[in-house]
Amino acid sequence: MLAMLQSQSAGSLLLRPGVRFNAVKVFSATMFADRDRLGEKVTEWVAAHSHFQITEMVVTQSSDASFHCIAITVFYRDPAVAKA
Known about the structure:
Helix content is about 25%, strand content about 40%. It has two helices and five strands, in the order βββαββα. Strands 1-2-4-5-3 form a five-stranded antiparallel beta sheet. Strand 4 and strand 5 form a beta hairpin. The chain is elongated and about 45 Å long. The N and C termini lie far apart (about 30 Å).
């Protein structure tokens, strides 16, 4: 079973404690329609890259007077990079 731990900071999910990452993928959006679909975009990417070991995901929100930005940062271990 996949071990998952909610970190002390809101918006962070540790999926594989003790497994180090060697790559990062960042998904971000500022427009409403793009923000609304961001989770689906991440899910599609994860499914298309099932050979990666996802170790952690962090969701970040930032805003100013005009825009709201959501970012989902995926930390993962790429076996191909680990062998290089």
